[in-house]
Amino acid sequence: MWQPDGWGFRARIGLLVPHAAIGSESELAAMAPDGVSLHATRVPLGVMRAGGAMDPTIALEPVRAFADPPLVDDAAELLAAAPLHAIGFAFTSSSFVRGAADDEILRQRLEKRTRGIPVAICSASAALALRAVGAEKIALVDPPWFSPELSALGADYFSGQGFEITHAAPAGMPSEQRAINPGHLFEWVREHVPAEADAVFISGNGFRAVGVIQALEEDLRIPVLTANQVLLWHLLRLAGTHAPVVGYGRLFDQDLPVKA
Q1: Number of folded domains in the chain?
Q2: 13, 187, 201, 240: most buried, per Cβ within 10 A?
Q3: What is the pTM of this model?
Q4: Residues 91 and 205 occupy one common structural domain
Q5: pLDDT above 80: residue 178
């Protein structure tokens, strides 16, 4: 009997990630169903240093610049030389700074370099996912390294697409990616999500969060979405697979919303 060899017979997914980040690769690998493989390439991010270190609060201009040409465009072209089915832009922050309209411009720009391979922009994936679960009033939980200004921009991003924001703030946890404890995140979200929220979105692809999705959904009784979860969901649908993803939220039972 042959052993699994990691080849993606269902879907081969590419990721564009900040150069010193491991969050998206780690979390998508944890969630990905059998037969789905992940292939990442790295793009320089000015706020990250060797070892993944960052300032306690990230500056907005390097976040904005992450989505500027030519570096991310060149990375997308190199990644798309591989036999992939879909590619994800795994960085919510630049979308909050640049806005939803720029996300669509970025998607189209990258797809000009990807040989027709579809591209999902993470924050746009989040908006699709919120619509897919029928959310209207959402609580936004941001990483502790987000400034209040960046959190406010995130609230603007989603309110501009018709969602009512019931809460938007950085989580009160250590501002260090490797210091995030899922148990502490679970308690913080459960204590701070307003009762009127009908969905939660935990932003930040470097924010360790997918491990608490199921537990939070059981306690809060509403859909709980995270940056890497919504990105994987969108990428799987773009790749044409509905292989089940178990234990990471009710979102994976949903199809992409039909465009109006």
Answers
A1: 2
A2: 201
A3: 0.95
A4: no
A5: no
Under the banding of pLDDT at 50, 70 and 90, the label for residue 259 is low
Helix (H) or strand (E) run with residue 64 in it: helix 60-65
Long-range contacts (CB closer than 8 Å, 24 or more residues apart) made by 174-181 = 174/144, 175/54, 175/56, 175/57, 175/143, 175/144, 175/145, 177/21, 177/23, 177/52, 177/54, 177/145, 177/206, 177/207, 177/208, 178/52, 180/207, 180/208
pLDDT of res. 3: 86
Tokens of 241: 């697979």
Q: Tell me which residue range forms the domain holding 146.
A: 131-226
Residue with tokens 């959402």: 138
Within this chain, do residues 169 and 210 fall inside the same structural domain, yes or no? yes
Residue 260 banded pLDDT, cuts 50, 70, 90: very low
